[in-house]
Design a protein that fits this description.
Elements: H1 12-38, H2 43-50, H3 53-86, H4 92-98, H5 101-104, H6 107-118, H7 123-129, H8 139-164, H9 168-175, H10 180-209, H11 212-218, H12 228-237, H13 241-276
């Protein structure tokens, strides 16, 4: 009697078909449209479009502020995750829920609120203005907005790892006389490092494409605080879809490259940890 070939997951074919269909409609087809529109231009036109001085300046603003904000998020995200996991204090649940506020809050609302706070007449901006430091309508303001929208990615990536971390290794380090600093760098940090890179990569990708919360606080000064998504919107408003998609394709390629590098680092760290065990 021939045995039936049973799959571990019932309905695998149907589930895979639905998954591929949703992925195609929501991700693959929209991304492929960028390539299709860009192919309406020849190579020379594409290069001329993405190497215009104003476009290159917007690349510099977007990439630099996104990188700085993601580094800040990587550090502050670990600290926030550590506090939420390792300590008990009043209103801990409230603080834990507020971490995800940037996900739920409309980006335009966040941009208006941050601009009001950091302007020279605002609560925070007014304080720094006394020392000659301008926040709103500068790259500092852009970085502040990007830190706000990127911090949840790092916290939510690191927090589960810290919660599942076996405390016996830390206790062994204490018994052997290791300092708290040494225990963190030799025992805890190697475990959370892949999660930090994951959060960093996700935050960087989000910051690169952020528009709503940045466009208000940036001031949109050409060659100074003008971000690439605003350039893309300007091209779309002029119905120059080919130029808009060519610029967008550069941003998309950069995001894919960052995520690819993060995945490579994660795989490398995983192999090292398995080899060490």
């Amino acid at each position: 009697m021939k045995k039936a070939n049973k799959r571990v997951i019932p309905g695998f074919g149907l589930s895979m078909g639905v998954t591929i269909s949703i992925l195609s409609v929501m991700v693959l087809i929209p991304l492929a449209s960028l390539v299709v529109f860009t192919l309406h231009m020849d190579l020379g036109e594409i290069i001329n479009t993405i190497t215009k001085k104003r476009v290159l300046a917007s690349f510099e603003v977007s990439f630099l502020t996104a990188l700085i904000a993601s580094v800040i998020n990587a550090v502050m995200g670990v600290i926030l995750a550590w506090v939420l996991v390792r300590y008990e204090f009043p209103f801990k649940r409230l603080l834990d829920g507020m971490i995800e506020l940037p996900f739920a809050l409309p980006t335009a609302v966040a941009g208006i609120a941050l601009t009001s706070l950091t302007a020279d007449t605002g609560l925070i901006g007014g304080f720094f203005a006394k020392f000659g430091i301008k926040i709103a309508y500068t790259r500092i303001g852009i970085t502040v907005a990007l830190v706000f929208i990127g911090i949840p990615f790092v916290v939510r990536a690191v927090q589960p790892v810290l919660e599942k971390l076996d405390s016996s290794y830390e206790e062994a380090g204490v018994v052997l006389g290791a300092s708290r600093k040494r225990i963190f760098w030799k025992v805890i940090f190697p475990e959370i490092k892949p999660a930090i890179f994951t959060g960093f990569g996700l935050a960087f990708g989000r910051c690169l494409g952020e528009y709503g919360s940045v466009v208000f606080i940036a001031g949109n000064q050409p060659f100074e605080t003008e971000i690439t998504p605003l350039i893309i919107m300007s091209e779309l408003q002029e119905y120059d879809y080919a130029s808009a998609t060519a610029i967008a394709l550069v941003m998309l390629s950069a995001s894919f490259l960052i995520l690819f590098l993060v995945n490579l680092i994660q795989m490398r760290n995983t192999r090292i940890l398995k080899g060490g065990n």
